Amino acid sequence: MMDATPRDFKKFTRKSLPRVEALAQGHRACQGCGEILALRMALKAMGKNIIVASATGCMEIVTSSYPQTAWEVPWIHVAFENAAAVASGIEAGRKALMRKGRLRKQRTTIVAMAGDGGTADIGIQALSGALERGHDFVYICLDNEAYMNTGIQRSSATPYGAMTTTSPPGKLSIGQHTWKKNVPAIAAAHGIPYVATASPAYYLDLMNKAKKAAMIKGPAYLHLYSPCPTGWRLAPERAVEISRLAVRTNIFPLYEVVDGQYILTKKIKKPKPVEEYLKLQGRFRHLDKKTIQEIQDRVDREYEALVQKAAVAEAEEESTEEAEK
Amino acid sequence: MPKRVGIEVSLAASEAACAADVDVIAADPVTPQTHIVEHLSELVADGELDAEFMPVESEHSAMSACIGAAAAGARTFTATSAPGLALMHEIVFIAPSLRTPIVMVVANRALSGPISIWNDHSDIMAERDCGWIQTFAENGQEVFDLIIHAFRVAEDPEVLLPVIVNMDGFTLSHVIEPIEMLSASEVSEYLKPYNPQMVLDPREPITMGPVGVPEMYTEARYQAESVLNGSKKVIVKAWKEFAKLYGRSYKPIETYRTEGAEVVLMTMGSVTETAMTAVDRMREKGIEVGLMRFRLWRPFPVQEFRRAVKGIKALAVVDRAISFGAQGGPVCSKVKSALYGAPDQPQVFGFISGLGGRDITVEMFEEIVKKAIRYATKGKGPMYELIGVRER
Amino acid sequence: MAKVDAITGWKDLEIGCAIIEPGSSRRLKTGDWRSQRPVTDRDECIKCGLCWIYCPDIVYSPTRNGYFKWNGDYCKGCGICAHECPKDAITMVMEGE
To answer: Number of residue pairs across A and B with CB atoms under 8 Å?
Structure first.
């Protein structure tokens, strides 16, 4: 797909799912790992003409423990906080070499991947820098809502009320007492061409967004919901179910931001109560009714704000058309 | 014929990177490195250098981007100074482990705190064990030549290690000197295009930077150590070829008027030129003093050093950094350990001076030499001393 | 030669310890992690492929006749396939049964 543009974009359908895998079996992810599942789907969509720069984290250690690698595509790990910077260097290096005639001209997707700690916390500076510089790359945040690799410590992407090993509930604490940082909004604030959220339960949506992200020239940011049975105290077989519930409760809404315009990609008509989502996970077991209500109110408010933003975009489009008439 | 021009040394450093036809430059501005990256961005903006100039948001990302670019097969350059070097510390150690042949100029500056933008060697001494090849330039010509040499050595298939070229901030980086500038075509005879051995390419997918499990971490580190030690012969050979082509010859250790010397001063960097003046002045007065300086700091040239000190009675090592709590400077500590067990070793006296931009004057060198002669006669001196520190 | 374990001499390491054989993790049979395994009733199976697409361990693969073949070498027994199967055609059974 040399120099394919989003105009050439053809959606995957159930019938046309790609068989290609960039990951091999034998990786050491936990039973029911939703993170490697989300990653696998995104990689399937992007094909094998890619180069991946990985942050330190679960995905790094389970795929690259010497002497085995689960990678079927070129892959590099340097450190925790710099996946975006490494990817930007790869992109710049290839760009220079192609211009100077030392590398065959072709478009290869450069991918940076990191967890929520590597994105929302320690890696946010490198991410911001790479987005601002406008490199042609895809950044994938695999959000499992805590530092799972080091033993389930809270991050700024850990949801309100969640128990982690550094946000334990106690006599004086409900657990995590801050609200999840909105990294997709931060990415979108850079004015990059493409931002999207996706959940592995909606695999076609996820894969189509990943493919679109790879095709778009310039920086693209994918925020992938990545359930962690181990860290969330969730039954492994429920990893996909919880990914669906996160969307159906509006806790993790699915949307795109294309050139600054918010587009809801999954409208939930009758959202389920957040309690249905929370009660399946041991990390929320300690929450009382009042806190659950607090979460419900916040989720409702945030979803409404998102709908408004998406609606505003549509309204503006309409008014322009009227003016033209 | 190469032309000799009066040019600020920082700009000459940029011109060297340009003559080496670098592909990627990733850098963040930090005093006193700024003129190097400013000039490189100009060269790129004017189309004189075909490279990607990455104005990254931090030195941590600068080194990370350099690793990415080098892993993609690009010739890569960066420059920094103390706070920037300290910020990239984590990644500095990873570059040699991944065998990415990045070239970095460090415009040496004091580490905070208190914050100081001025020159000493505390920044690079904090990175001395990082696995990079490290050279020190004495003057602008050497800065230019060492950068060209650095690319040649770094990219040698037997080496594939990153190289730091040190130059003193302000006292060297910001002065105008007459420098013979080689053009890109003149350099191309010496420096062939980079031919990477391990490269990120979808046609031949490899995994770089896998987890170093305990069963192989030791071996992984020994690979880096062994290659670094082995690089010395490539370094020396590359200097010899440089001399053949361009007429300027370099060695790991330089000596100046050491014949029959009672005491030999040991220095690194641009202060060496002041020390030469001091040596000349003292020789005129009949004091038998000489001078020795390290051009190559890592890998430490043990054999050359032992040979160079043969017959010398006393060494006065001038450090430009404190190794806190170690009771000495880092260079002096290394010198002492390099001599341990050697036959007829000289007495070694350590002096620390020139911290955070304070000048080391000719008079201070004379004071150091006088003290060293006195200690040598007595057969003992203090563990180390700070020259010019005020008590009140 | 591909390495099976990490015990190696330093001279045998690739430059920068790179791993040059893609997908060499296949040598690590993670199937021995599981206590339960999925069994598909092909009479119930509608060939929708959800077991294949939802498997974190890439254990199912499409076959010519439209069914999906299970690979016990790598299945960790998480049970997602059984849980997500729209026809309840997959059941988890204890190993050894």
So the answer is: 169
CB hemisphere CA count around C84 (13 angstroms)? 27
In a domain? residue B224: yes
Phi, psi dihedral angles at A289 (to 5 degrees): -60, -40
Structure tokens at B57: 């948001």
Q: Does B205 touch chain C (CB under 8 A)?
A: yes
Amino acid identity for residue A92 in this structure? A
A15, A206, C72 from A11: Cα distances, Å: 11, 11, 32
**Torsion over CA: C48, C51, C52, C56 (sign):** positive
Side chain identity at residue A323, one-letter code: A
> A188: closest CA among A259, A124, A255?
A259
Q: How many CB atoms lie within 10 A of CB B285?
A: 8
Per the CB < 8 Å rule, is A32 touching C80?
yes
By the CB < 8 Å criterion, does B382 face chain A?
Answer: no
Note whether B237 and B352 are same-domain residues. Answer: no
Give me the amino acid identity at A137.
F
- Domain end, chosen from B246, B263, B281, is at B246
Domain that holds residue B135: 3-246
Q: Please, which residues bridge with residue A119 across strands?
A: none
Render each residue's pLDDT in chain B as its tens digit; 392 residues: 678 999 999 999 999 999 999 999 999 999 999 999 999 999 999 999 999 999 999 999 999 999 999 999 999 999 999 999 999 999 999 999 999 999 999 999 999 999 999 999 999 999 999 999 999 999 999 999 999 999 999 999 999 999 999 999 999 999 999 999 999 999 999 999 999 999 999 999 999 999 999 999 999 999 999 999 999 999 999 999 999 999 999 999 999 999 999 999 999 999 999 999 999 999 999 999 999 999 999 999 999 999 999 999 999 999 999 999 999 999 999 999 999 999 889 999 999 999 999 999 999 999 999 999 999 999 999 999 999 999 99
The domain boundary residue, chosen from B246, B266, B300: B246
Residues of A in contact with C79 (CB under 8 A): 32, 235-237
What angle, 0 to 180 degrees and rounded to 10, lies between the N-to-C axes of helices B140-154 and B214-246?
A: 130
Residue B178: inside a domain? yes
The pair of three-digit structure tokens given for residue A196, joined into one six-digit string = 């999207």
Buried b (16+ CB within 10 A) or exposed e, A275-305: bebbebbebbebbeeebbeebbebbeebbee
Angle, CA of B119, B123 and B128, to the nearest 5°: 130
Give the A window 77-96 contacts with B, CB below 8 Å. 77-79, 81-82, 84-96
Domain A6-324 has CATH 3.40.50.150: no
- Burial code of A308-321, b = ≥16 C-beta within 10 A, e = fewer? ebbeebeeeeeeee
Alpha-carbon Rg for chain B, nearest whole angstrom, is 21
The set of residues, in sequence order, having a beta carbon less than 8 Å from that of A66 and lying 6+ positions away, is: B210, B211, B212, B213, B215, B216, C6, C17, C19
Q: Kindly report the backbone phi and psi dihedral angles of residue B377, in degrees, each rounded to the nearest multiple of 5, phi listed first.
A: -65, -45
CATH topology of domain C28-94: Alpha-Beta Plaits (3.30.70)
Instruction: Select the residue from A2, A64, A90, A107 to test the B interface by mutation, using most B Cβ atoms within 10 A.
Output: A90
Give the max Cα distance, chain C: 56
Partners of A51 on chain B (C-beta within 8 Å) are 72, 200-202
**Per the domain annotation, does B25 fall within a domain?**
yes
Question: Residue A70 and residue C54: Cβ atoms within 8 Å?
Answer: no
CA dihedral B269, B271, B277, B282 (to 10 degrees): -100
Residue A222 has φ and ψ, to the nearest 5°, of -115, 130
**For residues B138 and C69, what is the distance between their CA atoms, to the nearest angstrom?**
69
Does one domain contain both B315 and B209? no
